[in-house]
């Protein structure tokens, strides 16, 4: 996958309940994942690891947030819009000059495949710059059936 695998694209219109985390260090990610799982339980979705779509959201959240913390500048703000047909995940950082760059021709055992993974889990993805922040986003389904409605 080349650079076009993560397209420069504006954020889609997302309406729904908004959840937000401000992160300054990788050490904060475990508690943010736990809070996300708790919120999923609060909206009636299983907060365990048996729900495939919920776990895909948690995984995408972790991958995009950890990328921003490793390669961007703090603070990192991770936002999820819980819409009727899916999840809109937006992660911003203060490094607008550093575009998301999926690795090319790397052995997956070496890691660094987070953007490709999120692209495969999502029905749409992209990035844009606004107010000196880079935003990397992905739309994920809330159920296997809703993946078709989002596409």
Word description of this protein:
This protein has a single domain, classed as Heat Shock Protein 90 (2-Layer Sandwich), CATH 3.30.565.10. It has a 5-stranded antiparallel beta sheet. The mean pLDDT is 84. By secondary structure, the chain is α+β, with helices and mostly antiparallel strands. It has helices at residues 29-42, 52-71, 114-121, 146-150, and strands at residues 17-23, 76-82, 86-93, 124-130, 133-141. The radius of gyration is 14 Å and the shape is globular. One of its GO terms (molecular function) is protein serine/threonine kinase activity. Pfam families: HATPase_c_2 (PF13581). InterPro entries: Anti-sigma-factor_SerPK, HATPase_C_sf, HATPase_dom.
The string of secondary-structure elements, in order, is: EHHEEHEEH
The CATH topology is Heat Shock Protein 90
Low-confidence stretches: none
How many strand segments?
5
The side-by-side strand order for the widest beta sheet comes to: 1-2-3-5-4
Largest sheet: 5 strands, antiparallel
Spatial extent as radius of gyration: 14 Å
Helix content, binned percent: 25-40%
CATH architecture: 2-Layer Sandwich
Structurally, how many domains make up the residues? 1
Estimated share of beta-strand residues = 25-35%
Structural class: alpha+beta
Task: Indicate the mean pLDDT.
Answer: 84
| Gross morphology | globular
* Assigned CATH superfamily: Histidine kinase-like ATPase, C-terminal domain
- What's the CATH first level? Alpha Beta
Domain Histidine kinase/HSP90-like ATPase: 26-138
GO molecular function: protein serine/threonine kinase activity
Pfam family, one: HATPase_c_2
Keywords: Kinase, Serine/threonine-protein kinase, Transferase
